[in-house]
Amino acid sequence: MGVILEAKNLHLSFKGVKALVGVEFSVAEGEFFAVIGPNGAGKTTLLNVLSGVYEPDKGEVVFLGQNLRGKSPQDRARMGLARTFQGLEIFRGMSVLENVKLGAELALPAYPLALPRAEREWQLRAWAEEVLDYLHLSPFRHAPAGMLPYGLQKRVEVARALASRPKLLLLDEPMAGLSLEEKQDLARFLLDAREEWGVTLLWVEHDLRAVLELSDRVLVLSYGEVLYHGPPQGVRQDPKVAEAYLGQA
Amino acid sequence: MYRLAKGLTDAFSRRFARAVRETYGEDEAYASTPLGRLALGVFLLLLLLLPFLLSPYPMYVATLVAIGALSAMGLHLLVGGAGQISLGHAAFMGVGAYTASHLVGPLAPVGILLGGGIAALFGLVLGLPSLRIKGVYLAIATLAFQFLADYVFKNWEAVTGGIRGRTLPPAELFGLSLDTPERLWYLVLLFALPLFFYAKRLLMTRAGRAFMAVRDNDLSARVAGVDLVRVKLLAFALSAFYAGVAGGLLAQLYKAVTPEYFPLSVSIQYLAMVIVGGAGTVLGAVLGAFFVLLIPEVLNSLVGALGPQYAATLAAWRNVVFGLLILFFLILEPLGLVGLWGRIRNYFRTWPLPY
Question: What distance in Å separates the CA atoms of residue B249 and residue B32, rounded to the nearest whole number?
């Protein structure tokens, strides 16, 4: 198993606030990789840097052996880097199906003319339906995405991201605000997606139990610095992590 | 008798109930059912026969509405589709109209197309600020374009004929002079029908989804692989193309072009059509144009019935009614006439057993 994503010495600051300070880590292909840390640790900033919303001041991100510097978010999306957001960033006015189809565009080879073509649309539909079925969203396919309950909207976002057949999926707090049952469902969907479609997963999550149970490796950030990088078993034992979360004893 | 009844109810439910569509392909297509195809066919036939059914003045109004709907379709793509606002739609129509006024007679179709093309180029340029600014700020930028265009229309005498404008000889198609609205109607259909079908397909497929993604959430759209620059510029160019073609057709209908056909108030009128019709749909464009362009006609005929002494009062009331209607739709029916139509259809979909 090769390395799919590598972050080298990432630095980013906003007018004196150091959001990322020399962050280094690597994600192996097929891994379930977690990023955790207290509020304001720079987790979402890290995802923004990885997905191209921010450009780091220093350092580089290597994805599939390619340096991502200067690549726009849509370029990265086409390379197989998908992402979901912390808040709900789905397309509320579009139906669930349209949301997923939009993601599915990336799974099919680009076609040169912007003319609408029925054949391609059917291919998209078939693949989108597969993803919808997989995430148990089929009954809601024609519902406007913004009208669904919160848990389902979160699932629509995951479906949209998965429909692009990403090689690496970045998830920003996918479980926030979900009930226990919904969390379990989502965990199963994610593990199955990894199994079946070979998606590597990198997630930011606050639910420590879920993180420690599901993830292969964990990166702990605090004030933009890496505190811990390794298997989940070691997280609880690490004194620096305990200090960052609980304060000085 | 039983078979006839069963056939009719089956056709009815096939038309109205999605559940009966059995493949994804059928669900994707429009007019996928026999009844739907029949309705579409009847509708197209009706459009073709319209000049034989209406007397000259209603025909003139119908042509005006069709041209308005075409132009409104363009604004729908931009405002309802891609979520960008434009207060310069009339200016694009003006660009198309003045271009068309230079290629007349047998060249008219070419002139109209070229008008659309040149308007699209201006649309691309006006799309550039949309890459940086949004909402109200973008509205101001397009407003500036509207005023600039107005100034150029009034002062570039060599091309626009200044305040007095330009007059056009009637268009010709296959040697036939299109000097009356009844004849011009077919030229309008020639342009409008393909453009409407294109817009319909566009909104249902890849480009349309990219438009709507930008409208709903541009950050997320970027991360989902939508090229913002391309989508916004394409939306502006397409919208301007529709406006330009409509402007060219309007010039053929009026057989003249003057700056006063394309002031700011017309731009606002088109925005009103989008809002009243229900943003972002083909049906909305048609219904909105119908509504907004027919109100003055209805009020005019009221004036005719009441006598000329009320003309001034009613002219003022026209604007009041207009404003009230837009307020009404914004507050009570944000989906516009399309939303109303959807509700009526849903009522009949389950009729006569709603539960």
Answer: 32
